[in-house]
# Entry
Amino acid sequence: MRDVVGTTAQSKVSPVTDPESNNSYPPPMPWSLKRYQNTGNLHFVTFSCYRRQPLLRKPGAAEMFERALEQARVKYGFFILGYVVMPEHIHLLVSEPQRDTLATAIKAIKQSVARRQVKPGEHFWQQRYYDFNVGTPEKRVEKLKYIHRNPVHRELVTTPQDWPWSSYRHYASGEVRTVQIESPVAAWKRRQVGNQNALVLPKNEHPAQASLERGTRPLMVHRALYGSVERFFGVLIEHYAGAFPVWLSPVQVVIIPIGEKHHAYAHEVGEKLKAAGVRVHVDARNEKMNAKIREHALQKVPFQLVVGDKEVESAQVNVRVRGQEKAEGSVAVEAFVERVKKLIETKAAGL
# Structure
């Protein structure tokens, strides 16, 4: 990853989080840029909401974009060096995808957000986007500063640290959020848990050497997939901030019966999920339903299923998804089981 984020000792690039001088803010981005993709360079990408309306100011819209960005990063295999979600536009600094094109990845991100934010036939994004190739460390830092200081120059906050929907806090303090940032911090963490390989010269002859010519000495390769189990899981927990993908979550689904008369149905649904290989817990405590929902939301359980009279009569479950303020609604038990099974089998990053 050194080719993406590293700088040499001779590089005279100032840190991304340097305090801003009076004339350090880059000039406005030029219009009518041509796209030069598959060049091996980084890309500074900008796209706007429809007619530059502040559609990303809607409650939950910025967080939804961050989730869509992270899911696209995993699916298409590109690196995100920096980003900012503004009320009416997006700035990204990304590498070229390993799978498919950058244009396809951006289209997938925009469609994922639009499907959840507007009704069919309505527009959320401007159709075009702007793409500027970044080929030097100096330009990389310049664009990151432009990205991080955008909220300040728009007078939305007083410092970049105050704007939560950007990569600035990662560079300033190593904060881990929804979007995985490729940076010197991330590179350091990989070195802490990454592969360790060593060549060893065995002293004693092994029976396997019988087929070798006399006098030859084989090399033995010692490989450790991570430095230590504790450190590996520590970085893993920090990376996800406890919000693990479904396949990795200790408890994947919690079922919450509204009343005592719904306990039997809750356990019935739980048995169906267990039979499908899902780690499920039925919370039948004598506590208020909303208190249970809040508690399991804080524990970052991927799915909560609430069951009451309506669900018992229709053989359905009311689905609440981690990170979403409102419930998705009621679905058939079999449909939900298949949904969770697919997320586990494919080791999906999102929900």
